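debug: dumping io for the single-chain case to check the tokenizer round-trip. Nothing else runs in this session.
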Amino acid sequence: MSCTQRWWISFCIMGIMVTNSVCWARFERSGLGQYTLAALSWVFRRSKIPWEELLCKSTRVVLKRYGIREGTLLIDDTDKKRSKFTTRISKVHKIKDKVSGGYIMGQCMVFLVLVTAKVTLPVGFMFYLPDPAMSAWRKRDVEFRKRGVPARQRPCKPPKDDRYPTKEELGLMLLRRFKEDHQKVRVRCVLADAVYGTKGFLDTASDIFGGIQVISQVRMNQKVRFRGKEVSVKHYFEKHSGVPHAITIRGGEEVRAVIGSARLHIRSHGKKRFVVALKYEGEEEERYLLASDMSWKTLDIVEAHTLRWLAEVFYEDWKSYEGWGKLTKQQGEEGSSRSL
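debug: decoded output
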């Protein structure tokens, strides 16, 4: 990069740290007029900074400086609330508000985090936008089901549009990109939540890194085969209770938990998976984990899954203190991705 580009990036980093936002007007005020709002915006939009390489190169610097050669990858997604009237910010759509239970307008981002023994850092992200035709079909299909309309009389599912990749596909794209950009880093396992707990994702994610372990959560109503009968995961573990164990949380403190496990045939996957029922001390409901590699021990799977909490910590801290969570109103797809 040129000297001007390096100065611009360093000034923006200073502005983010001082103002806790990505806002050119605030940067101008905090810089005491060194750069004007128009100049900052022009470089952001017009300069030939290699934006796609910035995150990759900076990650390599951190990994080399700390001597990091292995880690665990976490895949998750998070929402960014936007104005209900916005039309120029990229990939804004209607999303479910977890707090109120209603709907808001916002952006959804799938991100990849690398967890190591020394640092936890983001290594990739992509914005998700649902297929409008598929969303409209699902809405109509739910209405017809409630009215008792037979399947043959309901509208057919529209063909998949490649312009709108699913969250699973975005997650796999991020994993492939990480594999290409950081070939010297040994990935121990991949962790994801229930959204990514499909046969295609688990098998493909494992194959990308040469057959490593992939752990996700599974729904309680997922059908498994036991002694020739199909039952839900919840029903199976109600009949086969777990036993108390002491597990280590992220290599630190020990906690008590009731753990049950079995190698069960998952109907939707068409093969056996390692299924774990986990209930921490003080919790009422069990959570269920799914692992692709059945050679691991139960406690190893549970202790590896505890690292997923770091993804929650990362994006809550990132939204609050790293600038992107406030006043990031840059327009267009480039505006969202470059400011991120």
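debug: round-trip ok. The chain has eleven helices and twelve strands.
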